[in-house]
Amino acid sequence: MKTAMKKENNLTSKMVSFVKKAWISLLLIVVAVVMVGIGVYFNSHSYWANKTDVSLFNAGMEAYSAGDQVLPTDGDRPEEQAVIRAVAYLQQAYSETDDANLGALAQYNTGTIMGFEGLKILDGSTPLFVIKEAIAKLAEAIRLDPNNEAAKYNLELLEKVQSILEPVGGIPVTETAVGSLGGLSGYSSGVIYKGY
């Protein structure tokens, strides 16, 4: 009887010892499973992927990277030049964002694209409104992010171009809107210094 009791105590102590050791491993496994579940959840419900302003900014950059192509109808956008679509998305991202950094980047890219497009048509018929609009966008980008040296450079360059095209107290060289820019207020295309 003592032997049976001894075996039972020995078995009980082994089980208690096993449970003491196993509960830590079991707890770690449960924590690992919970962490993997949380990771999967946040990965599939990414904060940035669901933000409208970031999505619009990314759509603008993607459209701009299409170059001089005419992009087909896409959801809310008609068939249009890639640069026109890029500017439209960037401006929409700027107007919908609460993030000053994203707003500054959207304005910088818009102003830079517009400035580049304005400089591209320097043939005596550069639409001065494009240069003026680009200057306004770059000034806003600098207001939002005073450390953006590229925006400062582009702004300075476009202000020099504007002073040539529109001398102080003089008559502007031209106010003609040419080509794909015709009458599109706030148009932007191209890049002086790429902002992405």
Features:
196 residues, 2 domains, disordered C terminus, single chain, mainly alpha, 66% helix, Serine Threonine Protein Phosphatase 5, Tetratricopeptide repeat
Strand content: under 5%
Helix amount: 55-70%
CATH homologous superfamily caption of the largest domain: Tetratricopeptide repeat domain
Order of helices and strands: HHHEEHHHH
Termini Cα gap: 83 Å
Q: Regions with pLDDT < 50 over 5+ consecutive residues?
A: 174-196
**Annotated CATH topology of the largest domain:** Serine Threonine Protein Phosphatase 5, Tetratricopeptide repeat
The top-level CATH class of the largest domain is: Mainly Alpha
Query: How many distinct beta strands?
Result: 2
Q: How would you sum up the global shape?
A: elongated
- Please tally the helical runs, counting DSSP H or I stretches of 4 or more residues: 7
Task: Please state the CA-atom Rg, rounded to the nearest Å.
Answer: 30 Å
- Placed side by side, the strands forming the largest sheet appear as 1-2
Q: How can the largest sheet be summarized? A: 2 strands, antiparallel
CATH architectural category of the largest domain = Alpha Horseshoe
Describe what this molecule looks like in 3D.
With 196 residues, this protein is mainly α. It has two domains: 1-45; 51-181, Tetratricopeptide repeat domain (Serine Threonine Protein Phosphatase 5, Tetratricopeptide repeat, Alpha Horseshoe). It contains seven helices and two strands; from the N terminus they run αααββαααα. It has helices at 2-44, 47-50, 52-64, 82-96, 100-120, 128-144, 149-165; strands at residues 70-71, 80-81. The protein has a two-stranded antiparallel sheet. A hairpin with an 8-residue loop joins β1 and β2 (80-81). α5 (100-120) packs antiparallel against α6, α5 packs parallel to α7 and α6 (128-144) packs antiparallel against α7. It is elongated and about 115 Å long. The model is unreliable at 174-196 (pLDDT under 50).
